[in-house]
Design goal:
eight-stranded mixed β-sheet, 2 domains, Rossmann fold, alpha/beta
């Protein structure tokens, strides 16, 4: 049996739920309880969240053979462009993920990303040798002090491992960064620039409080602040902007992106900065939000009205980035 995100199950024809925006990546969850104690995660050893929950998404169980056959069919139809194996920190989960990876690569040409913990560069190499097309090693926290607080030690080791993997497998390494854990804008901007320079793809998340976790009462970041970080990453990643061109206050919060209002509007007008980012074909529908609530990461192209609203939020005098 294997856990499949509810939206993925809909694309695979395994359920009949209403799916406003279908995922373009098949998200599979390998393993039950994690041995680590991340304060924000429903899979944490300390969490009392329901067993089928990760972030806001439910993950029902299905027979592995049926799931993998359905993925192959969806890939051939053009409904899916990637598989993401999300593997908890547990020996049995890693073994299960290796079996799933082998089954997928033997039956389909669909690219597979593996998001998993790793203790060494050799561990990452084993995933690539087993057929992974990309590897994701999540930082989550954008600064060492936040990492220690919400995940436990190991910030420097994790960062060094990402750097080495990015050097060995250029353009094939990803990480996750969660905005709203207590970091400053300067800290997350510096990290985003570092990752862009090393060609590490970043999946940006807005912190999402989940019942049963130690951070269940922690508030998500204001939408304006998240839009600012999305805009900054877009400027860095797509246009080569440098942190020295941005202005921050003494507390490290962003004041200006170093562009005039007109130029900023020109760059952000299409709304691409506000879409889900990460591995190619990853759109993670409603991972951070409710379909009827504020959307942090759009899982599809924005309408002209949505793009205009996001831009207005950023550039509105007194509320967003100064003109």
């Amino acid at each position: 049996m294997i856990r499949v995100s509810a939206g993925t199950a809909r694309v695979l024809g395994l359920n009949n739920i209403k799916c406003e925006v279908p995922p373009t990546t098949a998200y599979l969850l390998l393993g039950e309880k994690c041995l680590r104690g991340c304060s924000f995660c429903s899979r944490s050893r300390d969490s009392s969240s329901p067993a089928d929950l990760l972030s806001r998404v439910t993950w029902p169980l299905f027979p592995a053979k049926i799931v993998i056959e359905s993925i192959d069919q969806a890939y051939l139809r053009g409904d899916l462009g990637r598989v993401c194996l999300q593997v908890v920190h547990h020996r049995e989960a890693r073994a299960q993920a290796r079996r799933a990876l082998k089954m997928i690569t033997c039956s389909s040409g669909i690219p597979v990303s593996v998001c998993c913990t790793a203790g060494s560069i050799q561990h990452i190499q084993e995933w690539f040798e087993s057929g992974a097309q990309r590897f994701g090693l999540a930082l989550d926290a954008a600064a060492g002090k936040i990492f220690y607080k919400v995940k436990g030690g190991g910030w420097e080791k994790q960062l060094a491992l990402i750097y080495e993997a990015a050097h060995r497998w250029a353009g094939k390494v990803s990480t996750h960064i969660i905005v709203g854990l207590g970091e400053t804008d300067r800290e997350v901007t510096a990290l985003l620039q570092d990752m862009a320079q090393r060609k590490v793809r970043v999946g940006l998340f807005a912190f999402t409080p989940v019942k049963g976790t130690r951070m269940q009462l922690h508030k998500p970041p204001p939408l304006l602040r998240y839009r600012r970080i999305q805009a900054v990453y877009h400027l860095i990643d797509r246009y080569g902007a440098d942190i020295d061109s941005f202005s921050f206050d003494r507390e490290g919060y962003l004041l200006s992106p170093g562009l005039t209002g007109e130029k900023l509007e020109e760059i952000l007008a299409d709304g691409e900065a506000f879409r889900t980012g990460g591995c190619p074909m990853c759109n993670r529908p409603f991972y951070n939000e409710r379909p009827d609530g504020e959307i942090y990461n759009y899982p599809r192209r924005l309408s002209p009205a949505e793009a205009a609203d996001a831009l207005h939020l950023l550039t509105d005098t007194g509320a967003g980035l100064p003109q």
